[in-house]
Amino acid sequence: MYRKILNYPWIKRNQSFILLAPTMAGGVWQILELGYIGTPYIRFFSVSQLISDGLLLSFLLFWPLVIFHMMRFAILQEDEAKEDTKGILSKLRIWVSLIIVFIFIIFFSKAYWNTFKDLSLETITLLDIIGIEVYIVVMLSLIPMVIKAVVKLIWPSFKFDINKLINYLQLPITLIAFGLLGSLIYIIPLFHRSFFKSSDFGNMKYLDCAVKTENKDLKSYHLLYFNDKYIFIQITLKSGEKMTEVKKFETFLTNPCGR
Fold first, then answer.
1. Per the UniProt record, which residue ranges are transmembrane (predicted)?
2. Strands (DSSP E) along the chain, which ranges?
């Protein structure tokens, strides 16, 4: 059974692409970041940044995909042994499963709320974002499992067909998909801002000092993006003029104001 799950033929046929995918994802992410600042800034593309960005994106996507496939296997897997669907033991097993699922939802949701209710752009971490993703995937995956268990209790002889259920729930699933897309549109900028704003990144004071020292007419500045070679800053002068300034990454490592 597990051998059939783990040894997908397409994995064997596309090993090279799978190994190259993180690097490609890192490249796309960097181009989007630089392109958002401005097309000319794509020239500052860093090849040495590809692997770290790609691995980070892969890590973000890995856990939700693993959870999704585990839940999908639990939903679609049919019992290999024959069982008496009208028997007391079968109904008891379903009731126990439902109780466990509902207890899991309650405690998981409570823990989720207590953990993430006080998050901000300065405090959110990579693990927090993964936790949000996993929570959404798990909650959505549990819906068919609960429906399947309830149907078996009400109609024991009913042969559960997940495909028919999906057809019946096509509209709600479509609405949920649009909702997830909307949350993704929110989460991506949130991750972008939190990735470059960390409350405990002490080297930011070096950049702050350098920008204020070099721009006497400075009103404010905003960190747009940085890779392992360059830092991109949007500077606003007291006159209202805005401009984008590119600095070497070493600015993070040198304190121009001394101690």
1. 16-38, 50-71, 92-113, 125-147, 168-191
2. 218-226, 230-237, 242-248
